[in-house]
Design goal:
heterodimer; A: 467 residues; alpha/beta; Amidase signature (AS) enzymes; 11-stranded mixed sheet; two-stranded antiparallel sheet; 15 helices; 15 strands; 37% helix; B: 64 residues; flat
Chain lengths: 467, 64
């Protein structure tokens, strides 16, 4: 463990606080100091809730003194600024929502983390209204990649990836509609969990695309993902999308290893598209797991297209009043996509939703003879902030809309995914692999992530920020 | 509906009226490009044959 307790994982920090080797107040003060010293360069926070954090820390210290052992005792974390935090305006990356009153309540997941002893340091930068894969924001400024400040963090949970990679907090919550947890995890080199669709409550968070929105944690270890995921599960009458499923104890299953798991590489759409780093990352993980078998996820390109149509139409319908009255106040990088989304014929949208039913069934049947599928999280490592386009099948396309080509088909089926960061030989920048499990088997995805971490293949070091 | 017959410019002009949108001329080329992209995506989806009994994926549970 590092000499600086703030550099520890959530599990390590909670253990120090529970055993009274450090107080929650002291670890919180270290986090506030580090944010103050370093976040000007990274720009991951939009709201630092120092007072709230210290008050929460004092409660944790009192609980520990009273003999309690909260699982996240004193763990500093922060949330993408689409999660309601009582007393903070939920800006969802926008200028327009800053006119809203402060949130009256915490979001359900924040309440659960607080009850588990977590200490919330604030709200984090994100792409406007979550319609983003870059982490760039015209209103709050771009979030910069802690591993190379001239590069993007990925988005839209940009601040979530960056704050964790910079060591400002031990973990962060993000949202993932088409890849917005997995992409920043890949570019910032953190672990990330996109749970099964319908697993975690979305109550009191600002929506993007109700049919596809997921919430989940980013952290610097698999065990920390499990810690956060386990305390966040459970029914919530406030969320009508939540599936009635029994909760999992993923932390208890983490060390079961990969023995007996049937693991395959996603072929076809996910391989040999001209993205050497993505192929190499999957090869590295597959080699470590001794996997050579390939499976083909059927109609992945069409699934990505259907996710694109649904996202464009649903999100634009949500924002229609603002698009009509305040289009000029949108980030130029999202505005024109939202305007276009107001013009999607209903028949296109319904066709995409019907295709999703077919696709879910086809993808589910794969899991009859495989437990885990490996696929790249992003086509490449983080782009330079100045690079606005990328090459896709020989065509130059906008990066902002296309970085998620490998994540979109997976979330479209609602599958749970652990994003596992690896560092290719000779590369200073990380890239993640998606470890994809069957619906409701987050435990299996996390087991594989943990095995890769134990083998030294996957890791999420704190960035050394210079400049 | 194919890409060849879909006129994104005309669609934007018509739908801007329908939706009551005033589109700044400076934004219009990107809006048209985005509509054309969504149309290409939709064409890929629409070209996939689906049996009539396949319902949309959204669910609604009464009483919840």
């Amino acid at each position: 463990m590092s000499l600086d307790p703030l550099n520890g994982t959530a599990a390590e920090i909670a253990e120090l606080v529970r055993t009274r080797q450090i107080s929650a107040r002291d670890i919180t003060r270290l986090a506030i100091q580090k944010i103050s010293a370093m976040d000007e360069a990274v720009n991951s926070f939009t709201d630092v809730t120092a007072e709230r954090a210290l008050a929460e820390a004092d409660i944790v210290d009192a609980r520990v003194m009273a003999g309690e052992a909260p699982p996240l005792a004193g763990v500093p974390y922060a949330v993408k600024n689409l999660f309601d935090l009582e007393g903070v305006v939920t800006r969802a990356g926008s200028k327009i929502n800053r006119d809203n009153p402060p949130a009256a309540h915490d979001s359900t997941l924040v309440t659960r983390i607080r009850e588990a002893g977590g200490v919330c340091l604030g709200a984090l930068n994100m792409g406007e209204y979550a319609y983003d894969f870059t982490g760039q924001n015209a209103h709050d400024g771009n979030c910069n990649n802690p591993h190379d400040l001239s590069r993007i963090t990925g988005g839209s949970s940009s601040g979530s990836g960056a704050a964790v990679a910079a060591g400002l907090v031990a973990a962060a919550l993000g949202s993932d509609t088409n890849g917005s947890i997995r992409v920043p995890a890949s570019f910032c080199g953190t672990f990330g969990l996109k749970p099964t669709f319908g697993r975690l409550s979305r109550a009191r968070t600002y929506p993007f695309t109700a049919s596809l929105d997921h919430l989940g944690p980013l952290a610097r270890s698999t065990a920390d993902l499990a810690l956060f995921f386990d305390v966040m599960q459970g029914d919530d009458p406030l969320d009508h999308h939540l599936a009635p499923k029994p909760t999992l104890d993923t932390a208890a299953a983490l060390d079961l290893g990969v023995e007996g798991l049937r693991i395959a590489i996603a072929g076809g759409y996910f391989r040999n598209q001209g993205f050497a780093e993505a192929d190499a990352a999957v090869d590295l993980v597959a080699k470590a797991l001794n996997v050579s078998r390939e499976v083909e996820i059927p109609e992945a390109a069409r699934a990505r297209a259907a996710a694109y149509v649904i996202t464009n139409a649903e999100s634009a319908a949500l924002h229609l009043p603002r698009i009509v009255s305040r289009a000029g106040d949108f980030d130029p990088d999202t505005r024109d996509r939202f305007i276009a989304g107001t013009m999607v014929p209903a028949a296109w949208y319904v066709a995409a939703q019907r295709f999703r039913t077919w696709y879910r069934s086809a993808v589910n049947s794969l899991f009859a003879d495989v437990d885990v599928i490996l696929a790249p999280a992003t086509p490449f490592t983080a782009l330079k902030a100045t690079q606005k386009t990328m090459m896709l099948k020989g065509e130059e396309v906008p990066a902002r809309a296309n970085i998620g080509i490998f994540t979109q088909p997976i979330s479209f089926a609602g599958l749970p995914v652990a994003a596992v960061p690896v560092w290719l030989e000779g590369s200073r920048m990380p890239i993640a692999v998606q470890v994809i499990a069957a619906p409701w088997r987050e435990d299996v995805a996390l087991r594989v992530s943990k095995a890769l971490e134990d083998a030294g293949v996957a890791k999420a070091p704190i960035a050394m920020i210079s400049g | 509906m194919t890409e060849k017959t879909f006129d994104a410019e005309a669609h934007v002009s018509h739908m801007a009226e329908v939706m009551g949108l005033a589109i700044d001329p400076a934004w219009r080329p990107t809006v048209v490009a985005n509509v054309a992209t969504t149309a290409r995506m939709a064409a890929l989806v629409l070209s996939f044959p689906l049996s009539d009994d396949i319902e949309p994926a959204g669910t609604f549970e009464a009483g919840r």
